[in-house]
Specification:
heterodimer; A: mainly alpha; ABC transporter involved in vitamin B12 uptake, BtuC; B: 6-stranded mixed β-sheet; 35% helix; 28% strand; ABC_transptr_permease_BtuC (chain A); transmembrane helix (chain A); transmembrane (chain A); Fe(3+)-hydroxamate ABC transporter permease FhuB (chain A)
């Protein structure tokens, strides 16, 4: 089966050789050992740029492949990889913080800092997973939450210090450009360590593949092996992050490809994945070099791995065999049910109105807090009212979309964010920014909504296959999210004014909302609410699965399409305002359900009210916390939402 | 008129054929058992009848009309289907679950009228679920939950019930209780039922008609007496079987 890899190895070598020969004919190549003193500029570019770059691509790819294979083996989770578990994002956040707040920490190399961040993120995700028996979907959701929160914070800090923007964005995208052989030395050392460690771990991991109970029955120290294996994976991924930045998907794709090539046993998986990872990254980097030769260095290689990896994963999905033992996904016990939800809903609506009124009238002034008098209220009202209305409407829309999706997929963790809808919406926004000469607000909104709907339709194509397990659906969503992230970072690496517009929007801001825009959004939210209420019988039947729904004569196809269109519009419209990074769509329906709102109509209504309230709170916080400057709204919402969700997930199932 | 008339039915999945040109008529007004070894295609056949999967070849007609000619809601008014593992119906009361059976009649937006309330009440009564009406489905025991799902099917007011291994997760007392309920539903109210069963003695005891599949082919069709013979059972299950006679004269099969 390794013979099938040969063409790719040749392709990678060919691409690199083309770039190298384009730089310098073979006859003029520098002699070994390299001595910069006796080399001219092209020779230095080759000997200290392209050559280490080619080797780094191999080493980093192998490291990521091995890291992903170890994580997938130890967690028995075909979706695990340094990106989906938030490890890379943790390293990224640590580096961003260090770059901005304590640059002296980086004197000893980016290594220790990145490793600390990666380790902390992995620890948090594992702590969540440990409570749920490392159930795969829970782990990935936890990883995405940690990863998205880390990215949100990193984005906020990047925005606050614009002068670092470009280098950080390029680093985030994973550039393989090398200036000397130091990166090669570091990565080679780490990879050697990883190879030895995984050779030692291969047999225990094989025993662990029987499941924790079976393995401890055979006398294995399950916790110890897990800790060691994850530690090795974190070191590998953290080292690559420190040297090169975020390179998504290699760690996910390499073991998946290895498995489709017939690497069934864990030792073979561990042996083959680094090989495949090295080839993936080399081919990607070769393509980037090819483009760079002709039109200049356009985008970082990490963006390309996402571009290739997303579709690859989508293609792989139907071929992946679920390796999840049934019954490992547990929700946190049955949610309560309220027999008479009307008082609660009325109370929530009242609280929302009161909160909105209060928020209009109080605010911060230099040196303290103030309640507006009538005169300044008249002056401030036209400024504050639109953003309050818009924020509440966006929150309600996202919450309705989340409630619909959770019922449609019968998965309490589905949400516009997790299912990649927000990522698709972001691509739609970026597409309009780049393709239209002078994009109007309406065009941006249309683009965002179309992006969200198209993505949702793609994901729904997976859901609609019968008995599609939740992990596949999430894989599809993650694939789309990663694709979106790759496209965006490729777009932003261009680094012109449009990048700032997109970056600013990504974190979400409500400060530029006009009254007509706010009212349009509010109308849309009301229409969506009405639509969801009209479809409440579908929403009652659909969670029971395709078998029951089909047996009752429900028009499955039409119902799914309509509901998906509804959720896609809601997400798209809200995403225009708050950006893709908020957890309201996941949080509000979940919270409504925990409050005992079980019937579809109550559930949707409660989720909408909670979503609106959360977004109002986020808006207030975003306005006040950084006074006199506005912080991004979506960012603030995710800073409220993510810790709450993480707390929720760390609670033991009852 | 036959309930289902199946002609040359084949079902393929990638790399495998699950049903090989099955031709078969199922009688109306009877309780029919579909039996066979694991992987014999009995559940596949039931899912084709329930229109859960589309056949790869051949035709199936329900009440003399080909399956593709049925509108989804009309079909659901005539025929109710219960999958093998009914979902937990989290957060739903028994009454709400049973009321879902009215969907084929009122649709997505139609009014839930007095007729619907009446049908739900009668369905819960018929299945003995009235005392549990306000309880959450996920708090019921296995047997009660299965009866709640049966009540939902009754509320559908369909003349035909398709059940996929309805007793596989139940203890022996609840197995008997559920099958007796289905039998009552058939014989008292003139319904037809097609049930996938693992347990051959249960099939012989409760059903009027037996269809046995083996490796995607038909192995035997007839009344339970024809099934409960050592040679027939050995043909179906590929294992020597012995048929004992109970004091009341009814046969019991055990591995020889």
């Amino acid at each position: 089966m390794t013979a099938r890899l040969l063409p790719f190895a040749l392709l990678a070598a060919l691409l690199w050789a083309m770039a190298a020969l384009h730089l310098l004919p073979l006859a003029q190549w520098p002699a070994w050992p390299l001595d910069p003193a006796r080399m001219d500029i092209p020779q230095i570019l080759l000997g200290f740029g392209l050559m280490p770059r080619g080797v780094v691509a191999l080493l980093a790819g192998a490291g990521l492949g091995l890291s992903g294979a170890i994580l997938q083996a130890v967690l028995r989770n075909p979706v695990a990889d340094p990106t989906t578990l938030g490890i890379s994002a943790g390293a990224q956040l640590a580096l961003v913080i260090a770059t901005m707040l304590a640059p002296s920490l980086l004197d000893g190399g980016r290594w220790p800092v990145a490793m600390t961040g990666a380790g902390l993120a992995a620890g948090l995700v594992l702590a969540i997973g440990a409570r749920r028996g490392f159930a795969p979907v829970t782990m990935v959701i936890a990883g995405m939450l940690v990863g998205m929160t880390a990215s949100a914070v990193a984005t906020a800090m990047t925005l606050a210090r614009g002068e670092y923007l470009l280098s950080l964005v390029i680093w985030n995208g994973g550039s393989l450009v090398q200036g000397d052989w130091s990166g090669v030395r570091v990565l080679a050392g780490v990879l050697a360590f990883g190879a030895v460690a995984s050779a030692l771990l291969a047999r225990p991991l094989r025993v662990l593949s029987l499941g924790a109970e079976g393995a401890s029955g055979l006398g294995l120290n399950v916790a110890g092996v897990r800790l060691l294996a994850v530690g090795v994976a974190v070191v590998l991924a953290g080292a690559v992050s420190a040297e090169l930045g975020l390179i998504a998907f290699v760690g996910l794709a390499a073991p998946a490809l290895a498995r489709t090539m017939g690497a069934a046993s864990i030792p073979r998986l561990l042996a083959l994945s680094p090989l495949i990872g090295a080839l993936i990254l080399s081919v990607c980097d070769g393509l980037v070099l090819l483009v760079a030769d002709h039109v200049g260095e356009m985008f970082p290689t990490g963006a390309l791995t996402g571009l290739i990896g997303g579709p690859l994963l989508i293609w792989l999905l139907p071929r992946l065999r679920g390796s999840t033992p049934p019954g490992t996904e547990r929700a946190e016990g049955p949610a309560p049910r309220r027999d008479r939800p009307a008082p609660l809903l009325a109370g929530m609506a009242l609280a929302l109105v009161i909160a909105a009124l209060v928020l209009v009238w109080i605010g911060r002034v230099p040196g303290g807090w103030a309640v507006l008098d009538a005169e300044s209220a008249a002056a401030f009202l036209p400024m504050r009212l639109p953003r309050l209305i818009a924020a509440a409407a966006a929150g309600a829309s996202l919450a309705i979309a989340g409630a619909i999706l959770q019922r449609l997929t019968a998965n309490p963790l589905a949400s516009p964010e997790v299912l990649g809808v927000s990522g698709g919406a972001a691509m739609g926004y970026a597409g309009v920014v780049y393709l239209a000469a002078a994009p109007t607000a309406a065009m941006l909104m249309m683009g965002t909504m179309a992006g969200g709907a198209v993505t949702l339709a793609m994901v729904a194509a997976f859901v609609s296959r019968r008995e599609m397990p939740a992990e596949r659906v999430l894989l599809a969503g993650i694939a789309v999210s990663a694709l979106a992230a790759a496209v965006l970072s490729a777009a932003m690496a261009a680094g012109d004014a449009r990048s700032f517009q997109i970056l600013g929007w990504l974190s979400g801001s409500s400060s530029a909302v006009t009254m007509p825009g706010a009212l349009a959004l509010a109308t849309l939210a009301a229409v969506l609410w009405a639509g969801a209420l009209a479809a409440r019988r579908w929403l009652a039947v659909l969670p029971l699965g395709a078998g029951i729904a089909g047996g009752l004569g429900l028009p499955l196809r039409r119902a799914r399409l309509l509901l998906i269109a509804l959720a896609g519009m809601a997400t798209g419209a809200a995403t225009v305002l708050v950006g893709p990074l908020s957890f309201v769509g996941l949080m509000a329906p979940h919270l409504a359900r925990r409050l005992g709102l079980a019937r579809p109509g109550d559930h949707v209504a409660g989720a909408a009210l909670i979503g609106a309230g959360l977004m109002l709170a986020a808006d207030f916080g975003a306005r006040m916390a950084g006074f006199p400057y506005d912080l991004p709204l979506g960012l603030f919402a995710s800073l409220i939402g993510a810790p709450w969700l993480i707390w929720l997930m760390t609670r033991p199932p009852r | 008129m036959s309930l289902f008339s199946i002609r040359d039915l084949t079902v393929d999945v990638p790399d495998r054929r699950l049903l090989h040109g099955l031709t078969l008529d199922l009688p109306p007004g009877r309780m029919t058992a579909l039996i066979g070894h694991n992987g014999s295609g009995k559940s596949t056949l039931l899912k084709v009848l329930a229109r859960q999967i589309a056949p790869s070849g051949g035709t199936v007609a329900f009440e003399d009309r080909p399956l593709p000619g049925w509108h989804a809601r009309d079909y659901a008014r005539r025929l109710a289907f219960l999958p093998q593992h009914p979902p937990p119906a989290e957060g739903m009361t028994v009454r709400e679950l049973v009321a879902l059976g009215r969907y084929p009649w009122h649709g997505a937006l139609g009014r839930f009228g007095p007729g619907d309330h009446d049908a739900v009440a009668r369905a819960m009564d018929e299945c003995g679920m009235t005392p549990f009406a306000g309880q959450l489905v996920d708090t019921l025991s296995g047997g009660e939950r299965q009866r709640a799902w049966l009540a939902m099917m009754v509320a559908q007011q369909a003349g035909t019930l398709l059940l996929d291994e309805p007793i596989s997760a139940l203890d022996i007392a609840h197995q008997v209780e559920v099958l007796a309920l289905v039998r009552r539903m058939c014989h008292k109210a003139g319904r037809s039922a097609v049930i996938v069963l693992h347990e051959v003695n249960m099939a012989a005891r409760f059903c009027d008609h037996v269809v046995a599949l083996k490796g995607g082919h038909m192995a035997l069709q007839g009344d339970p007496a024809g099934l409960m013979r050592p040679d027939a059972l050995e043909h179906i299950y590929g294992l020597p079987m012995q048929v004992l006679t109970r004091p009341d004269g009814s046969p019991v099969a055990v591995p020889a």
